[in-house]
Amino acid sequence: MGGILNELFTIGQTSKIFDVSVQTLRYYSKVGILMPHFVNPQNGYRYYSYEQFHIIDRIKYLRRLGLSIDEIRTIYSTPQTTDELKKDLDAQSKRLNSEINRLQKLVREVNRYKNYFSFQGNNDIGYVPYSLHKNERRLLCVSCKNKTREQYHIDLLKLRHSASYKGLEVFRQFVLILDINDLKKNIITPLKIGFFITDECSLKSSPNILQLPANDFICFQGKILTDDWCSDFAIKIAEKLGICGAAIACEYENSLLEYKKCVYEVEIPVDLWGSEMQSAGLNKL
What are the average pLDDT values for consecutive 10-residue runs of the chain, which has 285 residues? Predict the structure, then answer.
């Protein structure tokens, strides 16, 4: 036995060489990935051969690449071929690319939310209208008709976290679809409330998803939940160009606790180049 042990390394020595715990090496043995080369029947001490070192090193490397213990066990169930290893590496590559895409989308979302809180209103220079072109957008929304402000907010939050939509990616910015005729009288009447959808989903025909086509808008800013706002100037310009649908009001929070003094950017759709807002039915809301 002495000759054999001179060629082997104890589990403690092996642990130090590879900077893995003794418990980890015992676990590899327990799940059938790597059995010790020799176990002393008298005291149960475990020994590893030099030839096994490259296996331990590869296991550590595969774990760093993200392969699971189960995958590694399957790989070593057929150690004479690399086919299973290549299959698992291909699957891991796809998982990592999917995670990269998810993280890139999350980075964009984080930056968008940071910019959302950096929005600067124009109240210091009055309610000066300006024009914007908006690309196509989609809104996850509920009706506000015949509901209190509290009721339609609760309805939206219930919808957002329901089984049908909890996996949908939305941007947390409250958006109101406003009655344009009341807006002309400086009255805020929400018809719908929602969140902008930020991913490409297959629920385009859902009754709770509103398609907002690309359009030109005359915009103004104001704290529309207070008396500190006026739409007169923007409405006059929009009427000359031809108002072609319901107004859209996007909230920009300036407090984490109090919301009534938030600035809204109000978009009034105009038929500058032949708008699609009419065909979208927003003029009928």
Answer: 69 96 96 94 94 95 96 86 92 97 93 88 67 95 96 97 92 96 96 93 78 94 90 94 95 86 94 58 59
> Which amino acid is it at 49?
S
Domains and CATH numbers, the chain: 2-87 (1.10.1660.10), 123-284 (3.20.80)
Q: In what order do the strands lie in the sheet with 38-39?
A: 8-10, 46-49, 38-39
Helix (H, G, I), strand (E, B) or coil at 193: strand
> What's the predicted TM-score (pTM) here?
0.75
Q: Which residues contact 267 (CB under 8 A, 6 or more apart)?
A: 132, 134, 217, 218, 219, 247, 248, 249, 250
DSSP type of residue 227: S
